[in-house]
TrEMBL record:
Belongs to the peptidase M20A family. Its cofactor is Co(2+); Zn(2+). This is Probable succinyl-diaminopimelate desuccinylase. It is an enzyme of class 3 (hydrolase). GO terms for biological process: lysine biosynthetic process via diaminopimelate.
Amino acid sequence: MTELTELLSELVRVPSVGGSPHEAGIQAMLADWMRAEGLDVDLWELPLPELTAQPAFPGMEVPRERAYGLVGRLPGTGGGRSLMFNGHVDVVPPGDLAAWTDDPYSGRVDGDRLYGRGACDMKGGLVAALLAVRELKRDRPRGDVLIACVAGEEDGGLGTYGLLDRGWRADACVIPEPTGLAVVPANAGALTFRLRVPGVSAHASRRTAGVSAVEKFLPVFTALRELEAARNRDVDPLMKRWDVPYALEIGTVHAGDWSSSVPDVLVAEGRFGVALGESAQQAKAALEAAVGKACAADPWLAEHPVTVEWWGGQFLPGRNPDPAFTAAVVGATGVTPEQWGAPYGSDLRLLAGAGIPTVQYGPGSIELAHAPDEYVPVSEVVAARATLTRLAAAHCA
């Protein structure tokens, strides 16, 4: 276990925030680890201009000058099925440092908990996969075992999109995202949107001479909450464990440019949950219709409607196309784990969309991801490593 915690602490201490130089640097570190373990290594710079120009590109929310793809391959002895472990190396920013007990990148171990940004989401799962591959070297299966380390998952899926574009495939895939050791064969989607609410500027002392964009946003926000409630009344059975499986939230609001002026524009950005089986076009049409209905009910907005823009990460929903592989992952756990669909987007939809049976299974709770004092239970990382080892040995035999 010491080796496991040392490796995980080392990775957590790398502040590999999406778009930062460390997001690229951690890939070089992992490539060195793979080479030292005797894996075949493919480390390449992602062709960003080429990828981002493709119609199917899933979006990107942070600027990047460069990013890298990385695949390590443990060659099989021949004749078996291949299996990929896919884990993202990018993490979200730590947020308010005062909310953390200590350094967000400490990698500190306290009992069964290893703390730090990315420990749960998802370097714990990545380490479980890395050490599973190491264990498989002792009794190598017939099929290849791949471990893909990808960048840009948090803001759209750049790394896995680039991985598939490069031609990497496998007969099945496990993403060791934090599921609390549950087996997750499906994900909701999430689309990023921007609203622009128009108003008319005036001196605040004569506010009735203007039109407040903040005030005009209120009925739109109410309409969005009503839309969310309607979309969550009847959901797929896999999603019933969540109180709001397809959440719609406004994450940022910016209005006006002076405290003594009536704000003439409000810009709000948010995420829109996409239901299992729903297309991006259907989801976008539903939100645009709700905004349009709210505008039609207000005399000012009827003449000056709110505009909707779709930008940034565009996570479509996804579902594992092969129930037999889900059953294989369940069997490899050695217990009877929970099975549910995740309310957030992930790279599952890109891999399943490419025809690769894919499930999520990994250590840590999603409630801890992106939060202060993020941690992963070390015992769950150990359990995930054992499951992934058993799964690969059986699947690739």
